[in-house]
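Q: What would this complex look like in 3D?
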Amino acid sequence: MIAEFLSYGFVQRGLAAGSLVAASCALLGVFLVLKRLSLIGDGMSHVCLTGVAVALLTSANPVYMSVPVVVLSSLGIMKITQKFKIYGDAAIGIVSAAGLSVGLLITALAGGFNTDLLGYLFGSILTVSRDEAVLCGILLAAVLAGLFFFYRDLTSACFDEPFARTRGVPVRAVNTALVVVTSVAVVLAFKVVGIFLISALLIIPPVSALLISRTFKQVLWLSAAFGVGSVWAGVYLSFLFNIPSGATIILVNLLFLAGAYIYSKTGGLHAR
Amino acid sequence: MPSVIEARGLRFAYVRVPVLEDISFSVEAGDYVGLIGPNGGGKTTLLKLLLGLEKGSGDIKLFGTELAQFKDWHKIGYLAQKSPVSQSRFPVSAEEVVLMGLSSHRGSGVSAGELRQVYDAMQKTRRREYAGRIFHDLSVGQQQRVLLARALVSRPELLILDEPSTALDAESREMFFNLLGELNAKRGVTILLITHDTGEVGKYISKFMYVDKKLVFFGTKEEFCHSNEVAEKLGAFAQHTIDHLHNHGHCPLGCSCGGGK
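A: Here is my prediction, written as structure tokens for the whole assembly.
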């Protein structure tokens, strides 16, 4: 059964792209969760709707159209936070609402919802193209390179931002890079789990890993493992039971979270 | 030799409400300055301005270099009023936290020299045994000691400390102020310290700075203790401070004022 499942080209592409993007989201999510910016993924995913709607209206590729829209919006969130000195979650709410309403407006003007749009809303991992899978690979390579070269700056900026600034850590550049790369990850993830569920890929694996890890490096690798594991299990279960893959991936993530919680409370590494 | 800190005409306002107005002073190498003043008087904001954590107007030079151009952050150790991470589960060891006190560094590796510096700093704060423990699992007082080690790890020439003893018990406080006194006296480390505990720390301090939105007083502790004029200018808070200094019949600042007799 598994051999048959893996023999399909579209399954191989979907699993490869899903694993790459889930690992990227899980690694980036660790920093977002610890910086209390978890919901930035939710805000950006709503903005994706604008990119997808414009792409469907103009017959452009939704992924390529959404990347600049979401990157600019995420930079907008940072600018609003700095310029008007309001909390990050409020800035995310403002940009998210703007993205969603513009997306819905364009969709309505274009003649309402259609099958393509529903595919982006709820995910269609098995329709991932070869080029999109390659993009997911480039994204993960960029995330891993960033982690390798800036690991200490990233952890320092996450742990105590004001202090990091007094060490000469370029905190603003670190934050901008984190948010821009997350924007690209969000766009590439909407085919895997759908616009509505992207933020779960950014939040649930890191939270599960944080529950049972003793070191920061352990958090990163466990988070990535949970993300990738959820894609494989989710896609296989959806194939087996003919159920939506995006939702199944997130439900598997929730099972991992429940397991991590029970482990931490009963015999886990944090048990005292 | 340039001043360690030179501030000229510093101003800062939160949404047009002035917090600091026209603050000018110089801190010289080897000074041990106690920064005092009422709550909300702008002490913490002043330290943040000096470190570039807040943006106001005026000129700041650190070790003779304009703040905007200043790069030698290893020369400065900073300890904030409270740990910004006390509420979150951030799985880093005490050793890793101390390591963050070394300047911006590319890559993920740690050199043997850096590790030695980390252990030296933890030894100074007598908390080397915490090295492998998760920072989050330590008590607030223990965390504060680790953060002090983080401030010391780069072997700074200037320490900027914002009410660092608040979370410490009596024994730790004594150890803490003795350590600061030793760093100042033996190694010539310049210290700028916000404190309300003028009695305990007073014997080490060489200068007082009193800030209440404006720079009300800046001078030696002898000037601070002797001057009735200063007491009149500073009003109730300073009078309380001076009374506190003298209430045991001797001056705990260790100055030659005669203990207020």
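A: To summarize the key features: The mean pLDDT of chain B is 81. The beta strands of chain B are 5-14, 17-27, 32-36, 57-62, 65-66, 76-79, 158-162, 190-194, 207-212, 214-220.
Q: Very helpful, thank you.
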